[in-house]
Amino acid sequence: MVNLPLPFGLLNDHLNLVLSVSNGPAVEQFYGDILDLERMSDVHLPDQRQMIRYRVGESELKFIVTSQNLLSMEGGLSNARGIRKLTLLLPYERRSGIIQRMMDAGIEIPEFAEDNMGLLSSSRGLTKDDEGNHVEIIFLNDESLDLSFSKLQIGLAVSNISDMGDFLHEVLELDPANIEADIHRYDLGQTQIQLWEVSKTMPKWVGRPHEILGMTMVQFVVNDVYAARETIVERGGTIHLEPYVLGDLGVVMFAEGPDGILFEFAASLVK
Mean per-residue pLDDT for 196-224? Predict the structure, then answer.
């Protein structure tokens, strides 16, 4: 097997998800206390904002806590165009503990669909966090493919599944994993992007973290944001916001995919 170079000079073979939230303690309770994800160190952002971080496999969930009174939209897989679902793949042995902690916290227990395929068993359920974001939990008992436990899946509802697929593959270099079913899947290392189609009449729920609450951006962490910009433009991509320095943290830029969905490119100032 040939190990191909990662696109855009990615530092690692995964992507991250950025969310804008209004309640930091609720994030800590749901993702930390209940789901028992690995807590990473917080990041202090300009304008006295805080970023709470959790690790899922190698990917990061980055929650930017805002004190602003921002617009919000209840989670729904088909009620808007944008980033609409987060899927966590967790070891099956954590299932009973998570369900018990959800019950103790008064969270409605989702209906879990069970599936058994030889050595692989799965239990899949859809719930919501405190801010109404849809979170799918898939518990896996996989004795043959440990890498399954490292994957994070990000779900996008789009008005034209072919247009977004072309953008992911031709501009961002994600690999098509399954583009035959109703839900198309594209891989980049240990992260998978899922696509499903909704009506063009559905509202767009897209924006940067200081503009809306919810799942706002898919993040690439790269060596050189400026080089990534040139590559995206050469491939016909659209730059939503040109590269700029974010405090003393790094250089960031936003590319815009179909339906206005944002993809962030970030590089540290410290080499």
Answer: 94
